[in-house]
Amino acid sequence: MSPTEELIAHLGSLGPVVVAYSGGVDSTYLALAATRALGADALCVTASSASMSASEADEAAALATELGLAHLLVETHELDDPRYVANNADRCAWCKTHLMDALEPLATSRNATVILGVNVDDLGEHRPGQEVAASRGARFPLVELGLTKERIRAESAALGLTTADKPATPCLASRLPYGTPVTFRALSQVDRAEAAVRALGFAELRVRHHGDAALVEVPGDRLADALDAREAIVSAVRRAGYAFCALDLEGLRSGHLNRVLG
After folding, report:
1. Mean pLDDT, the chain, as a whole number?
2. If you average pLDDT over residues 207-227, what whole number do you get?
């Protein structure tokens, strides 16, 4: 039995589920497997907020239609929560609190289990939101079957999913250093700057928000390309509202801002 067949069987044993579906690699794979296991008893829910890139919700909805998912878009309001806005190291916990607040009523009404697309590789990172979700009864089926990100990408490719090689798209608030308040203005600046740099041919990037300065990260093997496109990148970032633009010579790496946590 393939990993996907095992996952479908496992999900079938859970009964009705509500899938936290963002349109990323893990949640799309999980959503499709859940739909194949449970049909309409798998409700795939996208939580939209200012912390999500403007294009992500639209792309998730379009993909849900393409894949035949039972899909629902809900809004969450993390920016109304001062604990989230403070942007301390527990920010993700408050984000997941609002996500679970939105998903739990849906799950209760359907006698369903909330499931999240957490994979084995995620367990070693600083993600306090996972603890909140687990404490409120959410399940992580990909972890329960020992699936890594690499395996999920391979299985997604075998299924013909366009997300198989999609770059990671963490929430926009992850671009703000801890202690920098999360505001709509800052998130919008990051979103606009990343969209503009992405349009220059850099599919995988981060724009780290440091007040009036933007620190642009691209993969190490694209640094030379970024230098060649220096003027266009600077112009794009300034149009988003930043006064200064810098290129991070260490290159793109996940969890960059977590280094301050020791």
Report:
1. 94
2. 97
